[in-house]
Amino acid sequence: MTNVTRSRPLSPHLQIYKPIPTMIMSIVHRITGGALYFGTILVAWWLIAAASGAAYYDWVNWLFGTLIGKVVLFGYTWALVHHMIGGFRHFGWDLGYGYEKHFATMMAKATIVASVLLTLLIWIVGYLARY
C-alpha cells in the first residue's frame, strides 16, 4: 500500500509568496493590534499610579522618562497611530472602496509614511508643549 500523502502538493506558504506592501501592512496591522493590548497596560499602570499617590506617580513618571521608557512609549504611540490609520483603510474597504491593485498598494505605502510622520508630529508637539 502506498502513502497517499506523499503525492499531495504542498500548500504555498510565506516562503513562496513575494512580499507586497498590502501583505506586509496586513501583517503589521495585526502585530500593532496585539501590541496595543500590552501598551494599554502601561496606560492603566500610569493611571493607577496617579490614583495611588504622589510618590508612586513620580516613580512611574521617572521610569517612563528614561531612555527605555521613552522608546517603549514612542513605539506604543506609533502602534496606536498605525493601527488607527490601518483601521481607516479597512473601513474604506468595508464601504467597498479601494480594491483596485494600484490604489491598495498606494494606500499601504501611505499608511506607513503617515503613521511615522504623525507619530513624530505627536512627539514633537508633546515635547514643545512641556516648555
Automatic annotation (TrEMBL):
InterPro entries: SQR/QFR_C/D (IPR034804), Succ_DH_cyt_bsu_CS (IPR018495), Succ_DH_cytb556 (IPR014314), SuccDH_FuR_B_TM-su (IPR000701). It is a multi-pass membrane protein. This is Succinate dehydrogenase cytochrome b556 subunit. The chain crosses the membrane at residues 35-56, 62-81, 110-129. The lineage of its organism: Bacteria, Pseudomonadati, Pseudomonadota, Alphaproteobacteria, Hyphomicrobiales. Belongs to the cytochrome b560 family. Part of an enzyme complex containing four subunits: a flavoprotein, an iron-sulfur protein, plus two membrane-anchoring proteins, SdhC and SdhD. The complex can form homotrimers. Membrane-anchoring subunit of succinate dehydrogenase (SDH). It comes from the Bacteria. Keywords: Heme, Iron, Membrane, Metal-binding, Transmembrane, Transmembrane helix. Its main location: membrane. It comes from Sinorhizobium numidicum. Its cofactor is heme. The gene is sdhC. Gene3D superfamilies: Fumarate reductase/succinate dehydrogenase, transmembrane subunit (1.20.1300.10).
